[in-house]
Every structure is written in C-alpha cells, then in structure tokens.
C-alpha cells in the first residue's frame, strides 16, 4: 500500500498508465512481492533462454530475490540523466508481469529502450502488445521521445512479433553469449513518425506532469 505522502516526495509513485485491460504503475511493497513470486513460478520455457542476461536461470528463491533487488537498485540509482522505470502490470487487480522503459540523457537524445516479462501462465493473451503500447504512449505522447529501441534474440518469436505489430523496423544485429553458446540478437527501432501514423489502443496517463523533472524535463 502506497503512503499518501509518497507521490509528493517521489512523484513516480503517482504515475498511472491505463489501457482497456491493464494498469501499469510503480509497485508498492505487496505488488513487488507478488511480482517476485510470479517470477519464481516461471517466466518462460526453461529449455529456451530468451534474455541476454540469464536471470531466470537462477533457482526460484534466488530469482524472486533478484527481482526485488533489481527494482530497489533501479529506484536507488535513479538520475534524470540515467533512469530505468519498471512498472508492474496488473490485470483485473492481479500482478501479471513487468514492463520497463529506460533512457540515458533523455532530454538530449530523446531515445528510450523497453524490456518486459510476463508470468508464464499469462502468456498468449495479447498482454505483451498492450503493455508495450502503454509505455510507448508514455514515451512518445507523454515525454516527447523521438525513437524507441527494442531487441530480441532470434528465437524469441513472441517478442519479435510484438515489435513488428507495433511498427518497429530492423536496426541491425548483435552477437551475444547465452548459456555458453552464441546467440544472435535482432535490434529494432521505432520512430515517433512511424508511431504517429498507426492506430493504437487508447492509453490514459495520470500523474505525469509532476514526474517530468525526474525524467530530465521541465516540459514536453
């Protein structure tokens, strides 16, 4: 439960992104605990590692603790010139996953990157597209971004499909080592112009104005 004073002291606590099915917001202690438990249950088929940082290979208890520490670390290290916003995703009031958006020198570069995961039992319901749409709306319509970047390993068909559906275009490749084996990552880029000329589900933003200084902005 959020303290009534917290949104004043830390405006991000009052930020809300709402889509037809989902709500995205900074997690409170109970929601962060639920997110950690969801990660412990499983995020993907354990036979295939979709992340370049294989955090999901840890045993369930460690995986849960890693989720907690990652969120705490991002909050503690937040700077307007270098920020990572991790939002818990709720469906019908229940935590189903996490959607992140991050940037360095955003006020100058106007470029963001996104990353996300859903609990394994929530896959295949179109939530990945809806939650990415929410943070892209935040980035482009709310913060005035000019570019959004994403990336997925070649075998991560679900993530690549979300990016293609939302209009991203190829932006090169990277080579990574995952589980001791070479892995090819596809980089993708979406411009504000490409985003503007597509139809999207409606997204409502609440509490953004108070947060702008934390993103390095005095206005959009």
TrEMBL record:
Pfam families from the UniProt entry: Acetyltransf_3 (PF13302)
Domain N-acetyltransferase: 22-191
PROSITE patterns xrefs: GNAT (PS51186)
PANTHER family: RIBOSOMAL-PROTEIN-SERINE ACETYLTRANSFERASE
Designated name of the protein: GNAT family N-acetyltransferase
Organism per entry: Streptomyces polyasparticus
Source lineage: Bacteria, Bacillati, Actinomycetota, Actinomycetes, Kitasatosporales
């Amino acid at each position: 439960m959020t303290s009534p004073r917290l949104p004043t002291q830390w405006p991000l606590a009052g930020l809300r992104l709402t889509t037809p099915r989902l709500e995205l917001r900074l997690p409170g202690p109970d929601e962060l605990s639920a997110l950690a438990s969801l990660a412990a249950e499983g995020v993907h088929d354990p036979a295939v590692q979709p992340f370049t940082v294989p955090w999901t290979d840890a045993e369930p208890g460690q995986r849960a603790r890693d989720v907690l520490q990652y969120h705490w670390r991002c909050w503690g290290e937040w700077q307007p010139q270098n920020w990572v916003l991790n939002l818990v995703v709720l469906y019908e009031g229940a935590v189903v996953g996490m959607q992140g958006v991050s940037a360095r020198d955003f006020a100058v570069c106007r470029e963001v990157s996104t990353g996300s995961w859903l609990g394994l039992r929530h896959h295949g319901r179109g939530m990945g597209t809806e939650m990415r749409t929410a943070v892209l709306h935040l980035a482009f319509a709310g913060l005035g971004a000019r570019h959004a970047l994403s990336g997925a390993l070649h075998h991560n068909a679900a993530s690549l499909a979300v990016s293609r559906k939302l209009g991203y275009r190829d932006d090169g490749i990277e080579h990574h080592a995952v589980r001791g084996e070479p892995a090819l990552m596809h980089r993708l880029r979406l411009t504000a112009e490409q985003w503007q000329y597509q139809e999207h589900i409606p997204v409502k933003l609440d509490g953004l104005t108070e947060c702008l200084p934390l993103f390095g902005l005095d206005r959009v």
